[in-house]
């Protein structure tokens, strides 16, 4: 009876782990990351936090050129480095959001840009060859509104990272209000352009 109960508890713990963690890297998944960030912000109201979101340029080509095994090795390596850099800090959570997208919530006081850049350069050197240049880039968003959805915080960090997507010499960019305003303006222009195209197509069909 005792043995059965122990087995049931182990099974329950495993199911909870699977529901909250990424199976490839062992980091939190997206949903659990959002929950953990919300928890940190409530438990530590006087601590300033950063959201870091990383991406790899053209990562899909890794699987096409070298196979899924190589791609998974890169993802595991990034998760390992995230644990090495940030995992020992209290009030810090790391996650694999999806595919090659990772995220970290860390106290501003703990963030060491030089160390992060050093680890990124090391990883790029390890996995870059004549066929593929690994470009890992990170966007940093300082949390200013704790009531804002965590997904929106990640969007802002990702918005910052997109500004250096094609800059192989730079691997960290910081979000500011100007980026948001610029993004909104660009989307407005694109929307107006698409609307004009649709209108022209309609008028051409009508005539």
The shape, in one word, is: globular
Poorly predicted ranges: none
Number of separate strands: 5
What is the residue-averaged pLDDT? 87
| CATH homology-level superfamily of the largest domain | Reverse transcriptase/Diguanylate cyclase domain
Total helical elements? 7
Protein name: Diguanylate cyclase
Domain GGDEF: 47-177
Pfam family, one: GGDEF
GO molecular function, one term: cyclic-guanylate-specific phosphodiesterase activity
List keywords for this structure.
GGDEF_dom, cyclic-guanylate-specific phosphodiesterase activity, Rev_trsase/Diguanyl_cyclase, 5-stranded mixed sheet, alpha+beta, Alpha-Beta Plaits, single chain, 207 residues, 2 domains
Structure description:
The chain is of the alpha+beta class. The protein folds into two domains: 2-175, Reverse transcriptase/Diguanylate cyclase domain (Alpha-Beta Plaits, 2-Layer Sandwich), CATH 3.30.70; 176-207. Helices cover 57% and strands 15% of the residues. It contains seven helices and five strands; from the N terminus they run ααβααββαβαβα. It has helices at residues 2-20, 30-43, 60-66, 68-86, 113-127, 150-162, 177-206, and strands at 49-56, 93-98, 101-107, 136-142, 172-174. Strands 2-3-1-4-5 form a five-stranded mixed β-sheet, sandwiched between helices. Strand 2 (93-98) and strand 3 form a beta hairpin. It is globular. The relative contact order is 0.13.
């Amino acid at each position: 009876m005792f043995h059965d109960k122990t087995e049931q508890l182990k099974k329950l713990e495993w199911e909870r782990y699977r529901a909250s963690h990424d199976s490839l890297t062992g980091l939190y998944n997206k949903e659990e990351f959002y929950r953990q960030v919300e928890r940190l912000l409530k438990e530590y109201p006087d601590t300033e936090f950063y959201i870091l979101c990383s991406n790899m340029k053209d990562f899909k080509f890794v699987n096409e050129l070298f196979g899924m095994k190589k791609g998974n090795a890169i993802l595991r390596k990034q998760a390992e480095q995230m644990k090495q850099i940030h995992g020992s800090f209290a009030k810090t959570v790391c996650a694999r959001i999806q595919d090659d997208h990772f995220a970290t919530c860390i106290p501003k006081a703990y963030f060491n840009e030089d160390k992060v850049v050093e680890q990124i350069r090391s990883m790029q050197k390890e996995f870059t060859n004549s066929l593929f240049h690994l470009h890992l880039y990170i966007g940093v968003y300082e949390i200013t509104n704790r009531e804002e959805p965590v997904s929106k915080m990640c969007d802002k960090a990702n918005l910052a990272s997109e500004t250096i997507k094609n800059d192989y010499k730079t691997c960290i960019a910081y979000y500011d209000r100007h980026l948001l305003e610029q993004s909104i303006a660009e989307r407005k222009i694109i929307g107006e352009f698409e609307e004009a195209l649709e209108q022209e197509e309609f008028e051409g069909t009508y005539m």
